[in-house]
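R.M. (postdoc): so does anyone remember the format we settled on? I'll just put the structure tokens first.
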């Protein structure tokens, strides 16, 4: 359980820190993190507050895994299993995608985002989902 939950903890903290960086206006890595319309224009650009909310959610997910590791008691044991299943479901659904721009079954496969989604984002979501499930089953 230490490996699965520990890996997710590190992943969530790193991704959260990247979102905080973007929330403060950082540009590194932003060229291929949004789905593109006609392979040129990003489909949306979230405001900084939305980026900080995502960073907070990711830190919340990290705290669930920290609780599973026994590092601190963020939530009671009663809710820990439900939180792990919710995390697994969120990232499994993200891996499956919206059948248009993101996920395994996306139709638009051209552009930098689509390539990164196929190479990095979908496998990362599958890994996170599997790690959360394994943590749940090993509690």
């Amino acid at each position: 359980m230490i490996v699965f939950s520990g890996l997710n903890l590190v992943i969530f903290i790193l991704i959260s820190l990247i979102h905080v960086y973007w929330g403060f206006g950082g540009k590194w890595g932003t060229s291929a993190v949004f789905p593109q319309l006609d392979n040129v224009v990003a489909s949306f650009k979230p405001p900084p507050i939305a980026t900080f909310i995502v960073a907070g959610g990711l830190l919340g997910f990290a705290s669930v895994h920290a609780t599973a590791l026994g590092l601190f008691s963020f939530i009671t044991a009663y809710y820990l299993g439900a939180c792990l299943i919710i995390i697994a479901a969120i990232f499994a659904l993200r891996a499956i995608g919206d059948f248009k721009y993101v996920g395994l079954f996306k139709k638009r496969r051209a552009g930098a985002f689509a390539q990164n989604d196929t190479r990095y984002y979908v496998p990362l979501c599958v890994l996170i989902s599997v790690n959360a499930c394994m943590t749940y089953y090993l509690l």
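R.M.: ...and that's the designed sequence above, right after the tokens. Also worth knowing: Helices lie at 2-23, 48-68, 77-96, 112-137. The chain has a mean pLDDT of 92.
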